[in-house]
Structure to design on (935 residues):
């Protein structure tokens, strides 16, 4: 086949357009602190500490701003030093945006962090099965002295700012949380302990003293989610082969740059001591986690600064040593001494910055090539990219060389002679770039591999590089060298078999058949169940006298069968919202609408959220959580393109050409791979005024004119306006910038918030774009139903079950559960409660919470019916037929309507509503959303 060759005139025109008319998005327009410091270091202030005069304490309210006037006698780089107090109970750290003289001096000032100190109770708390569980944590509401630190934790050093001679304005805006500043000083570098660390001292260690502290119980920590853990490992103390005992500091919680824990040990007499840790570090393969170690608030010598903790899959002893592996003692006076371990991200920060820069440059080149070639790859077209974008070939080699240098740096940090497994993506990306350069003749047909280099390797590397988990079993000050860890083989074998045989009789949170207690099954992992059982035992049972057994649900899809066999529980929690209808229509569940105070309780939830499990006037479940949909957008990219956040779908469509010009697009949730159910197809149907039902249950509404037009509007987004038909991962493409805007749900929100560090502070959420009605009100209907709670009709304790559900769904309980879940298990465990009053009090980012709550006013759900599964299936088939196969919409809807109506009649007969060619009893009315949400 003859290949198309672009002529010289076309090359000139395209090159001219690329160079002069096509804007290119760059994510590196703002300088980072690393470069800012290098450029301004000659201006470092060298004088004494300056106390800034404050007339009174300055209170920065959540989401508000304050300006502090600072006067200096000479220009220079100063380190602000704050004395502050955080009095709120929020588990989120206070985050501020700081402008100096109306300017953002470097991008880290977008988000500076003010931490609180926390203390977790070391009192032994056990569940009903004798297993130790994590105790409560308390915020220490005390004044804290701290410099200015960025939120990424990539710098050990605090942040310095440039101040001109005379008056300067420091403008603080709260992004999250509140803060009271009682004192502000300006320091020079000579005041910084972390930059003035003494050399290691040589001292004679004499004596036999040895004091230890258990790693699972620090006396203080700077993040609420740092927690103890329980493992079955006979090499740690304490240990029980039968019961779970808290015996380590959990690496799944102690992993973020800047996280710190403090222990207190009593030194018996003055002298030199070694410091050792019994630890495990299996998060970074072949690569150490670095610790800054403070004794009584000061790093004693250089070996205690960025001390490497090598990779080990088993618990091992590590004595603080120098680079030559010589143990370094420190002099300690007798009495109580505090030792603090802080995770340092700065040793590997150069890798993070280098990879981030390469990602940005690769994305920029990808966009330029897309502008040149269009959005699709033509395998039959020869294009010499070098003629249009000179230097591209060399750039591929340069990136590969830079990655190789970063790999060598990582190897040096690890102290080995080969690339650590933790940074294997560097070598993979380097090899891919060199292969593209080697086969450069066909680069135009393979340039999309650049994107895969970013998403599959480099972005993943960034995500993993900020999780540097460390488990600590024991901390020891000692004067005699610790001997090798002695694990008795016989003891280990005995513990193994004890644990093995106990597993056959261990029934913790297992389904109980012989208990007289209220039986509650929960369709969630053990972390959730442990917190819930503890709250029940401490709060619900003492108040009501009702004993409750919590069991982890075997399989929610078998609940109907369990009910038929007569072995169902009294209550089931976290049941998918599609199941209560199927069980309710089979008379398996209690109609909760008949229970006392039902209407009062339902006022706590979003409107219409109970629609899927409502049959006529009967409601067979209570909403437990909600799966909110919002619009995600990259602020940096939209600002660079001069685009505003769209309010309507029409505005979203209108911005597609500008995105397409940059090789980008937008995401709508029907582009997910796989089944397109009601939650993603319903919004536009309802926004456009369509419906899935008619007044006659025997006739579906999908072939009504308004519904056909709404489905046409939906499919036109993909067939006419060219939204991507299938997006393997919106989360990934949102991260790499190829899809900088889109509508998605709670799960995406959680992933972007907690697993996309390279774009933190660059994205935001907004109300989903909708379709205006005749009065101009934008309809933003979206789905919100998620998990539910049900009571089985076979239960002989219906009143107790209802009392339990009233307690569980109350705002007070939901708030307590959500906070405890997050403080116990980590920031990723966001509890998306359906109780609006509780949601308002949970630790979501405030401005995001406001958007989510506003979006819940437009909550809409498709009613379930005896044939709703067939309606959902056929709508999915219509969508795929039009978008994927290019078939005629009206023909598809007519065909699907017949299939649905036929299935509806069959199900009506099955459930006794229809026989002998006539309705035997009226089918409960179906009410679809037909009104606008209240303002």
């Amino acid at each position: 086949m003859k290949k198309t060759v672009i002529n010289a005139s076309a090359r000139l025109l395209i090159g001219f357009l690329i160079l002069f008319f096509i804007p290119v998005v760059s994510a590196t327009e703002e300088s980072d602190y690393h470069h800012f410091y290098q450029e301004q270091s000659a201006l470092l202030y060298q004088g004494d500490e300056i106390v800034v005069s404050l007339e009174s304490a300055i209170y920065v309210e959540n989401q508000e701003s304050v300006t502090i006037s600072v006067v200096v006698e000479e220009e220079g780089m100063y380190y602000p030093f704050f004395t502050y107090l955080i009095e709120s109970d929020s588990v989120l750290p206070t985050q501020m945006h700081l402008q100096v003289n109306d300017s953002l001096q470097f991008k880290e000032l977008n988000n500076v962090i003010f931490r609180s100190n926390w203390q977790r109770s070391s009192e032994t708390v056990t569940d009903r099965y004798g297993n130790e569980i994590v105790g409560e944590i308390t915020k220490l509401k005390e004044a804290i002295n701290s410099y200015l630190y960025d939120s990424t934790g990539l710098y050990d050093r605090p942040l310095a700012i440039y101040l001109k001679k005379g008056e300067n304005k420091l403008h603080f805006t709260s992004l999250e949380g509140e803060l009271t500043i009682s004192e502000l000083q300006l320091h020079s570098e000579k005041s910084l302990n972390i930059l003035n660390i003494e050399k290691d001292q040589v001292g004679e260690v004499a004596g036999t003293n040895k004091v230890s502290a258990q790693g699972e119980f620090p006396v203080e920590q700077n993040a609420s989610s740092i927690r103890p853990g329980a493992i079955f490992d006979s090499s740690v103390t304490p240990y029980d082969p039968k019961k779970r005992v808290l015996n380590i500091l959990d690496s799944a919680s102690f992993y973020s740059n800047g996280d710190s824990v403090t222990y207190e040990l009593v030194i018996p007499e003055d002298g030199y001591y070694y410091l050792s840790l019994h630890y495990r570090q299996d998060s970074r393969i072949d690569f150490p986690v670095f610790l800054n170690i403070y004794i009584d608030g000061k790093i004693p010598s250089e070996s205690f600064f960025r001390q490497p903790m090598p990779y080990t899959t088993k618990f091992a002893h590590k004595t603080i040593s120098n680079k030559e592996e010589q143990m370094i003692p420190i002099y300690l006076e007798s009495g109580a001494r505090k030792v603090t371990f802080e995770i340092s991200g700065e040793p590997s920060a150069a890798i993070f910055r280098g990879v981030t820069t390469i990602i940005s440059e690769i994305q920029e080149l990808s966009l330029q090539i897309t502008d040149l070639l269009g959005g699709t790859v033509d395998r039959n077209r020869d294009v010499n990219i070098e003629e249009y974008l000179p230097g591209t070939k060399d750039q591929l080699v340069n990136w590969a060389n830079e990655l190789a240098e970063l790999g060598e740096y990582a190897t040096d940090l690890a102290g080995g002679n080969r690339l650590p497994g933790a940074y294997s993506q560097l070598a993979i990306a380097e090899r891919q770039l060199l292969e593209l350069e080697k086969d450069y003749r066909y680069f135009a047909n393979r340039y999309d591999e650049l994107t895969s280099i970013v998403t599959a390797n480099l972005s993943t590397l960034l995500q993993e590089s900020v999780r540097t988990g460390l488990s600590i079993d024991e901390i020891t000050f000692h004067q005699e060298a610790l001997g090798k860890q002695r694990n008795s083989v016989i003891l280990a074998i005995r513990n193994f078999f004890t644990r093995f045989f106990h597993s056959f009789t261990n029934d913790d949170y297992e389904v109980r058949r012989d208990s007289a207690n209220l039986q509650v099954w929960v369709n969630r992992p053990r972390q959730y169940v442990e917190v819930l059982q503890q709250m029940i035992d401490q709060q619900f049972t003492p108040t009501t006298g009702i004993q409750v057994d919590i069991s982890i649900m075997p399989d929610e899809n078998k609940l109907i069968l369990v009910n038929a066999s007569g072995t169902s529980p009294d209550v089931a929690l976290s049941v998918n919202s599609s199941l209560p209808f199927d069980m309710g229509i089979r008379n398996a569940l209690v109609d909760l609408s008949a229970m006392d105070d039902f209407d009062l309780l339902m006022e706590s939830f979003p409107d219409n959220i109970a629609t899927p499990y409502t049959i006529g006037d009967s409601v067979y479940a209570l909403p437990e959580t909600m799966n909110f949909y919002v619009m995600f957008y990259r602020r940096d990219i939209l600002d660079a393109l001069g685009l505003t956040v769209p309010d309507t779908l029409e505005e979203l469509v209108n911005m597609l050409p500008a995105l397409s010009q940059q090789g980008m697009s937008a995401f709508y949730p029907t582009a997910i791979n796989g089944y397109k159910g009601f939650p993603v197809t319903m919004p536009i149907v309802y926004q456009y005024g369509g419906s899935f039902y008619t007044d006659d249950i025997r006739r579906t509404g999908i072939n009504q004119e308004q519904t056909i037009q709404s489905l046409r509007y939906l499919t036109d987004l993909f067939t006419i306006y060219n939204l991507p038909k299938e997006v393997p991962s919106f989360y990934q493409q949102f991260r790499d910038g190829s899809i900088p805007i889109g509508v998605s749900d709670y799960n995406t929100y959680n992933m972007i918030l907690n697993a996309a560090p390279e774009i933190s502070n660059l994205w935001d959420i907004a109300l989903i774009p909708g379709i205006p009605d005749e009065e101009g009100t934008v309809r933003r209907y979206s789905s919100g139903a998620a998990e539910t709670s049900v009571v089985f009709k076979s239960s002989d304790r219906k009143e107790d079950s209802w009392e339990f559900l009233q307690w569980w769904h109350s705002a007070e309980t939901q708030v307590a559960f959500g906070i405890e879940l997050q403080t116990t298990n980590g920031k990723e465990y966001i509890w998306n409660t359906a109780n609006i009053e509780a949601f308002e009090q949970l630790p979501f980012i405030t401005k995001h919470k406001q958007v989510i709550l506003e979006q819940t006013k437009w909550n809409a759900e498709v009613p379930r019916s005896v044939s709703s599964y067939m309606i959902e299936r056929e709508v999915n088939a219509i969508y795929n037929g039009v978008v994927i196969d290019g078939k005629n919409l009206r023909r598809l809807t007519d065909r699907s309507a017949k299939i649905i109506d036929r299935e509806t009649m069959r199900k009506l007969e099955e459930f006794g509503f229809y026989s002998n060619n006539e309705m035997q009893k009226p089918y409960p009315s179906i009410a679809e959303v037909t009104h606008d949400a209240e303002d």
